[in-house]
Amino acid sequence: MEETFAESPYYEALDVDSKQKYKDLISRYVGRDPFIMKMSEFSKELRHLPTVEAVDITDYLVLQTFFYTIQQMKAYKRLEAYKLFVSGCVQNLVTKRLPDDCRLVFARVNRSQGSGEAPLKTWIIAKEDGEVIAAHCNCTASLSESCSHVAAVLFSIEAEVRARDVGSCTSAQCRVLMPSNEKEVPAAPVAEIDFFSAKSKKLKPDCSTDGRTAENEPGKFPPCPRVKRGSETYCRFLENLRKNCPNSVALMFLTIPQTAPKEHDYYYGSNTFN
User: Averaged over 45-51, what is the pLDDT?
Assistant: First the structure.
């Protein structure tokens, strides 16, 4: 084994027996510790992903590592791993081709708690036909070669493969349209904001694996027609807003006199709607 093996903090933290097992695994399939590999060594092409199916996930998580029971897998949508997947916590899914028709899949998984912490690193070795050989994650629970983060990556691979096969596409445009785990939301006009909640997007993630891309994603509507400030429609809207929602933030930008000479006469201060 190369000396670079010792450069992995994950490897150095293992006990003697686990180190030898880990070293034998990497020596047989990869040749170098995946935790010290650079992203430039991997490919983002979907065609390189192993064809992982639901049966392969169940075989690895239930029969090989005993991480879940068969009863838990029957209700897989309740698992923490599946919630991580549909929440968009699996990021930077990349693949490296290995000898003997094997694949090394690497991903970063945002933590379910403490979002300010660095994402976890997770890698999986699988055959091209989808059979999962081994997996590791640098979280504290992955010494058994399985954890919720490994399971989340497997769910992500399976969804990406379905999207790839349905759309017969290998480009990044065919990636699964899951809610992204964004930390900042930029300001935008109301007409351009997607008001579909993350919960509604998580309910049926399968709808994002039928080959749809961002260009034909449902929920896109034509822009709202512009209403001229001071027009009858504009004033009627504000009057109804004042009557029904007197504490609306929108009314904070308006100066409405106690006794208006006409029903729709509004006096605007320095901060007004454009």
Answer: 94
Specify the pLDDT at position 228: 80
Q: Is residue 199 part of a domain?
A: no
Co-location of 131 and 234 in the same domain: no
Question: Exposed, middle or buried, 227 (CB in 10 Å: 0-12/13-18/19+)?
Answer: middle
pLDDT over 60 at 168, yes or no: no
- Number of Cβ within 10 Å of residue 106's Cβ equals 20
How wide is the angle at C-alpha 193 spanned by C-alphas 192 and 195, nearest 5°? 140
Q: Which domain holds residue 250?
A: 226-274
Q: According to the model, what pLDDT value does residue 260 have?
A: 42
Specify whether 269 is located in the same domain as 158: no
pLDDT in tens, 113-136: 555 788 999 999 999 999 999 999
- Does residue 218 form part of some domain? no
Same domain, yes or no: 248 and 155: no
Shared domain for 140 and 230, answered yes or no, is no
Among the candidates 157, 174, 191, a domain finishes at 174
Count how many residues are written for the chain: 274
Non-local CB neighbours of 192 within 8 Å, separated by 6+ positions: 223
Residues 132 and 249 in one domain: no
Q: What is the DSSP string of 97-144?
A: EETTTEEEEEEEE--SS-TTSPPEEEEEEEETTS-EEEEEESSTT-TT
Cα–Cα–Cα angle for 123, 155, 15, rounded to 5 degrees: 35
Candidate from 91-105, 118-132, 172-186, 238-252 with smallest mean pLDDT: 172-186
Number of independent structural domains in the chain? 2
